[in-house]
């Protein structure tokens, strides 16, 4: 019988717990090294595990002790990249700061900047699933996650006027996010785009506003895109609901 098997379960679990921070740190080093190398690599070129290990200052065997194989490592990398992307978007999507137009421009600007600055990571998200959703590629899962976050902009308005059409809000936000991601990706891949970055952001913000405005009017609500979002909510909660005029 091995020495590990002869020890009480509590002793083994305690030893594992003591090593966990060390293992977490190594996993983080490996993932960060992989992300840096992916960003530096040519499009479509897979970074070898031995190169990732060297960049992290670890032996190749350490990588395989921390991850069962390439698939698990790649899923973890995609999850980490997606979390960073979502973090940037959620920082921009602060409904307590600015008008509806400000929020749309700021959030779409964050999407444009991230995709422009990280083209290889964007492409890598499309190569397979993340840890959180094994059934879809990581970019599709990311779009769904961002769409969920942007529902705050819609749900706050809808709840204030007693509208509970969750299906409409879900469809609208997903349509806006999908449109934005696809358009920005096409723009970033164009060697001579017709629009500047600022023009693209304003154009997409305008499209997004017209979608939001159209859905709001269907529910009898007229919104002012230049009014502070918190003021819009305050008026609506107080019962001041402007008529759409038809």
From TrEMBL:
<dbReference type="InterPro" id="IPR009057">
    <property type="entry name" value="Homeodomain-like_sf"/>
</dbReference>
<feature type="domain" description="HTH tetR-type">
    <location>
        <begin position="24"/>
        <end position="85"/>
    </location>
</feature>
<feature type="DNA-binding region" description="H-T-H motif">
    <location>
        <begin position="48"/>
        <end position="67"/>
    </location>
</feature>
<feature type="region of interest" description="Disordered">
    <location>
        <begin position="1"/>
        <end position="22"/>
    </location>
</feature>
<keyword id="KW-0238">DNA-binding</keyword>
<dbReference type="InterPro" id="IPR036271">
    <property type="entry name" value="Tet_transcr_reg_TetR-rel_C_sf"/>
</dbReference>
<dbReference type="InterPro" id="IPR050109">
    <property type="entry name" value="HTH-type_TetR-like_transc_reg"/>
</dbReference>
<dbReference type="InterPro" id="IPR001647">
    <property type="entry name" value="HTH_TetR"/>
</dbReference>
<protein>
    <submittedName>
        <fullName>TetR/AcrR family transcriptional regulator</fullName>
    </submittedName>
</protein>
């Amino acid at each position: 019988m091995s020495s590990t098997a002869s020890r009480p379960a509590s002793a083994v679990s305690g030893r594992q717990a003591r090593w966990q921070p060390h293992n977490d740190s190594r996993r983080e080093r490996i993932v960060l090294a992989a992300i840096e190398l992916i960003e530096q690599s040519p499009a479509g070129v897979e970074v070898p595990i031995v190169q990732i290990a060297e960049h992290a200052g670890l032996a190749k065997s350490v990588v395989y002790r921390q991850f069962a194989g390439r698939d698990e490592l790649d899923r973890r990398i995609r999850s980490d990249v997606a979390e960073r992307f979502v973090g940037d978007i959620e920082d921009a999507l602060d409904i307590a700061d600015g008008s509806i137009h400000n929020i749309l421009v700021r959030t779409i600007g964050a999407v444009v900047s991230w995709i422009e600055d990280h083209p290889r990571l964007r492409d890598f998200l499309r190569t397979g699933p993340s840890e959180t959703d094994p059934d879809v590629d990581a970019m599709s899962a990311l779009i769904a996650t961002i769409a969920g976050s942007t529902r705050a902009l819609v749900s706050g308005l809808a709840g204030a006027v007693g509208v509970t059409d969750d299906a409409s809000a879900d469809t609208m936000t997903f349509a806006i996010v999908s449109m934005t991601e696809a358009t920005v990706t096409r723009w970033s891949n164009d060697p001579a785009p017709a629009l500047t970055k600022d023009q693209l952001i304003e154009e997409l913000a305008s499209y997004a506003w017209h979608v939001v405005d159209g859905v709001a009017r269907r529910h009898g609500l007229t919104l002012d895109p230049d009014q502070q979002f918190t003021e819009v909510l305050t008026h609506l909660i107080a019962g001041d609901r402007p008529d759409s005029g038809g």
